[in-house]
Structures are given as structure tokens and as C-alpha cells.
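Dear colleagues,

I hope this message finds you well. In preparation for our joint manuscript, I am sending the Carrier domain-containing protein (Actinocorallia aurantiaca) sequence together with its predicted structure, so that both groups work from identical material. I would be grateful if you could confirm receipt.
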Amino acid sequence: MVHAAGVNRDGLVTTMTEDQLDEVFAAKAHGALHLHELTLDHRPAAFVLFSSASGILGGPGQANYAAANGFLDALAVHRRSLGLPATSLAWGLWAEETGMGGRLSAADLRRMARNGMGALSGTEALGLLDRALATDRPLLVPARLELEALRAAAASRPVPHLLRGLVRPALRRAATGPVQEDGLVRRLSGLADGDRRAALLDLVRARLADILGHDGPAAIDPDRGLGEQGLDSLTGVELRNRLSAATGLALPATLVFDHPSPAAIAAHLDGSLFTAGAGLLAELDTLSAGSLDEEALAELTGRLEAALHRLRRTTEADFDLDGASVTELMEYIDSDLGL
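The corresponding C-alpha cells are as follows:
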């Protein structure tokens, strides 16, 4: 007996509707539960549940789908505890143009590959099915992992915890405050206003092109609406996350709705990064150039030193020990001591 039903109703968890949950759970969880109850007395030779790797690794916009597949995995373990046959297969992507995978575009497939999930051919998948049924394990994850892509991505974003035995996470400090790309703001602050805005627009277009699977930023129209260029709510959140990581700004989840074109987002980044900062620097210049009496100078010095201490505590965060080797730990200590 093979339970292979499934429905996709993707969406952000904060906007997930009851209908989206019901449709996915009806096909996955409720159907599997009915089959379980019907086979309590009559035992089939095999009870196979087609689950998904999204229940193990997660997937953007697939909270409902991941939860439903997690139910299948738990059901298989439960059946085994009752002495009943059960195997849940948390499949990765199949390279089939029909079925649930057929809804994915070429850009979707490239994006999944960059995130470490390749596609299994039908022959490979059926071979893994045969091998899985020859084991006594209730849960297996037959999937093609693109480890080289994960290693390449590890320099800019965290490696999922479940994959850290396969891909070493990049050595990094666990920041408690926002941290921008190395030297980005410093490089931009040395540019004229027009050049700075152009550089920020290039940044937005490059990130957007990568998310949408284009060959380069030239494919992105600066003034055309983001939705017209293929961005949806899920990829909009990914764009927000990437720009937050690049600039160190705490950008809102509504970024792509409040600023619905690449040029509008670039202008927002420019204002957020430099308008307030420029005003603060001007105030400091005025204070340093002016004449202050000893009492006022002592008060100003004390406040600036306290602010500097808070800033250092924010940006000089503790080392993330998770997954670090002894060599990496010693390198961190040397670096922190300036050796």
C-alpha cells in the first residue's frame, strides 16, 4: 500500500488561511490516517508514505506542507511501535515535468539547486524506493543534496543545523545587532550622491536577479513593478532578508509592498543608511568645532564613551561555538587578541 497524495497551497505563515491548512492536511495527513485505521487488522506487506524533505529541512512558504509531512513521518514511527509495517520516505525533488514538481519553473529549480536541493531522475527515485523498502527503518530521506552549492552558500548564510555534519558552517561571530557586508557602507559613503544611489540600485538588481534565477542584473528593470518581474510574497521576503544581510538594516517584511520597484527600494536604502547618519555626523562636527566649557565637555565625553561602549557590545558579539573545531576556536582567540 502506497500513500502518494499531496497538495501544495504555499504561503507565508503569518497570512496562512484555514483553507490552505485544510486542503494540504486533507490530502496528506487525513488520508494517511484513514489508511492506517483501515489496516490495523489487515496488514499489507508494505505501508509506504510519500512524505517530503520539507518536513525535515523546512521550506520557504511551506509551513502547512511541512507540518502535514511531519505527521506522516510520525505516523510511520507510531505504526512500527505497534508492530505494523510502515516506511515514510521524505522525498527530495523529482525531475519530473508532471505532478507537483511540474509547477516549478526553471528559475525555481535553479534557486532550489543553489540552496542545496538537486533533482532525482525517475530511475534514481525508484531505485531508492527499492532500497528503502529493503531496510527496517521507519523514516528515510531519499534526496539529492548539492553539497558544493551548500558549501558555496555557507560563506553568506547559515548552514541548516541538520546538514552541518555534511557541510562545515563558515566561521563567524554570532552578532546580536545588524552587521552589513564587509565595508559596504564605508565604500558607499565615499561616493557622490548619484553614484551612491546607483551602487545601491545595482545591489538591489543583483540580489533580485539571483533570487529570480536570471543570468545577471541587466535582466531587472529598475522602474518596473516587482510583481510584474516575477516577485511574489515568498521571494519578496527572501529579497528583504538578503538586503538586510547586505546593509545591516532591520528592513520590514512589507519592504516590497511599501517600495514596489527596484529603484524605490534603492532610494529607501539610501535614505535609511545615509540621511540619518549624515545628520548625526554633522552634529558631531559642530560640537567638536565649537567651544564648550569644562563641565559641558565632561558631560559630552561621558555620553560619547557610554554610547561607544554600547556600540562595541552590539557589534563585537560572542563567538558562535556551534560546530566550531579546536583550530577555528584558536583562530578566533588569536584574532580577538589581535595576534
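For the figure legend, we might mention the following. Confidence is low (pLDDT under 50) at residues 173-180. DSSP finds 13 helices and six strands in the chain.

With kind regards,
E.M.
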